[in-house]
Amino acid sequence: MVLSGCEKAPPPPASPVPQRIVALAPNLTETLFALGLGDKVVGVGDYSTWPPEAAKKPRLGGLFDANLERIVSLKPDLAVLLPSEKDLAAKLRPLGIDSIIVPNETLADVERSFTVVAERCGVPEAGERLAAEWRAGLAPNPLPNRPKVLISAGRGEGRLADLLVAGPDTFYQELLDRLGAVNVFADAPVRYPKVSLEEVVARAPDVILELRSEAISPETARQLVTDWNQLGGVPAVRGKRVHVIGGDYTVIPGPRLPRLYAEMRAALTPLAPLSHRTPARPGEGGTYLRVGWGRPSPGGRECDGRGDGGEGP
Predict the structure, then answer these.
(1) Residue 55's closest CA among 66, 70, 43?
(2) pLDDT digit string (tens) for 234-264?
(3) pLDDT band at residue 9, thresholds of 50, 70 and 90?
(4) Are residues 207 and 282 in the same domain?
(5) What is the count of structural domains for the chain?
(6) Angle at Cα 208 formed by Cα 206 and Cα 210, nearest 5°?
(7) Separation CA 86–CA 216 (nearest Å)
(8) At 92, which CATH number?
(9) Where among 137, 169, 189 does a domain terminate?
């Protein structure tokens, strides 16, 4: 039989649903578990600690020092990777290990990752459900006063030197946009610039948000706030509006970002009532300290600290 030249070729066969998955980036590991795929995850990166079940999985190295031999020994049929791990994907391909590359630079990237990973892993409904919950948790909720905000993304304890701040084209910038706040370093030439104290004074932020990648005690959080007292002329310091939020969810652009979003809004809301959160998920640490709007302490300084494992999204 002669086939007509206009007949379409049959579509390529669908990739089989993976049964053994590896991921090195913490946000992608969290996404897999949030999609209900934790039982299929056979290995994770060295810095993947959430959920607690992920911490029990075999360790495969970091984003830039992946242990190829260890990965291959686990016999995965899919690797979920970031764009920075394209070289690893190229090494896995001739070994018969498929990969998907999932960007995570923007909020749109993160949301899209839920459905892309879910579709490839055979659970598209879970992906749509997670994306819908995430969108609801990050719905724009502008503040009426449009505060000018500095986000401290990294510095040493006890000093303000080597201060790293969130600049443009970061998910922190997008969160501030949704809150109707102004990032005082939105015009920086790079995404995470290192800035001088003179620049901080010149930008005159109304609020300073200090983000820490680890859960910290209220005492440590108060010391971090005290470090800023050397900039007493800055409105945020003068008005006692320096806030510390501590926990790994503050630096991971993944399913738990709505928690950070909610805590950022609470910190940026003047005169908002303080509330104590009770742990809903054992093992998830967090610290949220607000200075300036709490009850007066015996010494007359208004402050209130919360060091707990609060509710996560």
Answers:
(1) 43
(2) 999 999 999 999 999 999 999 999 999 999 9
(3) low
(4) yes
(5) 2
(6) 175
(7) 35
(8) 3.40.50.1980
(9) 137
CA–CA distance, 142 with 244 (Å, rounded to integer): 21
Which residue segment(s) compose the domain that 189 sits in?
148-308
Residue 13 lies in a domain: no
Residue 215's nearest CA partner among 248, 189, 178 is: 248
Q: Could you tell me which of 187, 206, 185, 211 has the C-alpha nearest to residue 196?
A: 185
For residue 16, is it within any domain? no
- Both 35 and 170 in one domain: the answer is no
205-230 pLDDT per residue, tens: 999 999 999 888 888 888 999 999 99
Preceding peptide of 140 cis, ω within 30°: no
pLDDT digits (tens, 9 = 90+) for 153-208: 999 878 898 899 999 999 999 999 999 999 999 999 999 999 999 999 999 999 99
Mean pLDDT, rounded, of the chain: 84
Q: Which residues contact 97 (CB under 8 A, 6 or more apart)?
A: 71, 72, 76, 77, 78, 79
pLDDT at site 304: 29
Residue 143 domain-assigned (yes or no): no
- pTM to 2 decimal places: 0.81
Residue 39 and residue 121 in one domain: yes
Q: Are 20 and 40 in contact (CB under 8 A)?
A: yes
Q: Tell me the two tokens of residue 53.
A: 């079940």
Do residues 191 and 87 both lie within one domain? no
- Which residue reads 């949301």 in tokens? 111
Place of tokens 């879910």: 118
* 132: Cα separation from own chain's centroid: 18
